[in-house]
């Protein structure tokens, strides 16, 4: 059922949740640009640099499923406000002491807030937009992550060049706190979306029931494999250019930001195609994302032997396809859950995506340290290509049993 509360514009609501995601994703998407400066400050090997991303997603893993149920229980407005305060506060806290363990702890707290913010807004998109509009609407909202990553990359590189990683985190944390809080306060949440006042235990039981749906399982497996490629791109692309290709951290950050911007375009393009070209199928475009993302990773495996032009093409492909799939997965999960359990279904999927996101940087760091960048990116390409298999299986099953939407 579409909602059109008096005085509220669906596009204004979409803008609020998009802006908040841009701000909240600055560290998640831009962490790669900060990694060279952290490595320089503490003289860290690749394996320990990978721990930064692992700490971030580990925090999210502990809370994301519960955050989805909390969105169902309390509504998106409350979750957006509280997660924004946690993200911004933890980033600012990370700047207090120049200590690597302290940094990991604060990044862990940021991960909790970032994961909690993801389901927020899903109910609004399902309620304010028709099924024929949701793919594009979700794609626009999910551009917030790559656009935030691009802005974060440029901001962190610029500030860290002058004031170190601590100055970059302090600046970024302030931006996150201000914009997420403002978006939450400006959102006039309709009473229909204020949450279902049932016990948390009942909502968790519902997640257990939803999690048995084979459609949800296949979409989640696809998303887990693609998440491996996405988090590897976010964490290791700049350091690959710096240590593997001999480029400066600033040049690497610029190319990295360009890749993030292409991801923003990808999420809108794939979302629009899923609405019209593929008649509401979210999984067919995910197959193409898996294939194209694998090709871009294979191209990057030639680091040291390819020029800057091909590196830009690889960044474009890793962004457009390697990140562009995310909105499709979120919408597929939400539509399988339906309006009553969209938050729980999305939380279930993201929880398992974060498992993959926690493992992938450690695997990538170990492979780079032992076998080099070429082999590591070959493995990343293979993982992405395998994702096409469960996506095709999900497509067949969704045709037989369409999502509720």
Map the helices and strands.
Elements (H helix, E strand, L loop, with lengths): L9 H15 L1 H17 L3 H29 L1 H19 L5 H18 L4 H7 L2 H12 L1 H43 L13 H11 L3 H32 L3 H27 L7 H18 L7 H13 L5 H46 L1 H14 L1 H13 L5
Oligomer: single chain
The CATH topology label is Growth Hormone, Chain: A
CATH structural class: Mainly Alpha
How large, in whole angstroms, is the Cα Rg?
20 Å
The N- to C-terminal Cα distance equals: 10 Å
The gross shape turns out to be globular
Residue windows where pLDDT falls under 50 for at least 5 positions: none
CATH superfamily: MFS general substrate transporter like domains
Mean pLDDT: 84
Which series of helices and strands comes N to C? HHHHHHHHHHHHHHHH
Question: Which structural class do you get from the secondary structure elements?
Answer: mainly alpha
In total, how many domains does the architecture comprise?
1
Largest sheet: none
How large a portion of the residues is in β-strands, by DSSP E? under 5%
β-strand number: 0
The CATH architecture category equals Up-down Bundle
Tally of DSSP helical segments:
16
Classify the helix fraction into a percent range. over 70%
Can you put this structure into words, describing what you see?
With 405 residues, this protein is an all-alpha fold. It has one domain (10-400): Growth Hormone, Chain: A, CATH 1.20.1250. The chain contains 16 helices and no strands. The protein has helices spanning 10-24, 26-42, 46-74, 76-94, 100-117, 122-128, 131-142, 144-186, 200-210, 214-245, 249-275, 283-300, 308-320, 326-371, 373-386, 388-400. The radius of gyration is 20 Å and the shape is globular.
């Amino acid at each position: 059922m579409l909602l059109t509360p008096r005085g509220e514009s669906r596009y204004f609501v979409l803008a609020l949740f998009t802006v908040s995601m841009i701000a909240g994703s600055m560290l998640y998407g831009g962490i790669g640009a900060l990694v060279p400066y952290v490595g320089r400050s503490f003289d860290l090997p690749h394996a320990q640099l990978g721990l930064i991303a692992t700490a971030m997603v580990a925090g999210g893993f502990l809370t994301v499923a519960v955050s989805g149920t909390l969105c169902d229980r309390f509504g998106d407005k409350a979750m957006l406000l509280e997660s924004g305060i946690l993200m911004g506060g933890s980033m600012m806290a990370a700047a207090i002491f120049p200590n690597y363990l302290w940094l990991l702890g604060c990044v862990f707290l940021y991960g909790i807030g970032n994961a909690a913010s993801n389901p927020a807004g899903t109910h609004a998109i399902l309620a304010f937009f028709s099924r024929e509009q949701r793919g594009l609407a979700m794609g626009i909202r999910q551009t917030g992550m790559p656009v935030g990553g691009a802005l974060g990359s440029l901001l962190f590189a610029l500030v860290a060049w002058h004031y170190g990683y601590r100055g970059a985190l302090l600046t970024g944390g302030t931006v996150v706190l201000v914009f997420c809080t403002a978006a939450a306060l400006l959102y006039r949440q309709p009473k229909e979306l204020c949450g279902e006042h049932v016990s948390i235990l009942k909502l968790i039981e519902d997640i257990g029931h939803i999690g048995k749906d084979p459609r949800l399982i296949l979409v989640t497996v696809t998303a887990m494999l693609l998440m491996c490629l996405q988090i590897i791109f976010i964490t290791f692309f700049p350091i690959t250019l710096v240590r593997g290709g001999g480029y400066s951290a600033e040049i690497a950050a610029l190319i990295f930001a360009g890749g993030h911007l292409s991801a923003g375009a990808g999420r809108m393009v794939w979302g629009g195609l899923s609405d019209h070209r593929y008649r509401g199928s979210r999984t067919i475009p995910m197959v193409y994302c898996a294939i194209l993302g694998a090709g871009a990773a294979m191209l990057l495996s030639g680091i040291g032997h390819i020029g800057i032009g091909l590196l830009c093409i690889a960044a474009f492909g890793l962004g457009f396809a390697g990140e562009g799939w995310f909105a499709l997965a979120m919408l597929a999960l939400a539509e399988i859950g339906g309006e009553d359990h969209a938050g729980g279904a999305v939380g279930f999927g993201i929880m398992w995506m974060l498992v993959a996101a926690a493992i992938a940087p450690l695997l990538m760091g170990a492979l780079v340290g032992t076998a080099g960048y070429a082999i590591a990116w070959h493995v990343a390409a293979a993982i992405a290509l395998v994702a096409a298999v469960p996506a095709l299986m999900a497509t067949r099953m969704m045709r037989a049993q369409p999502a509720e939407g």
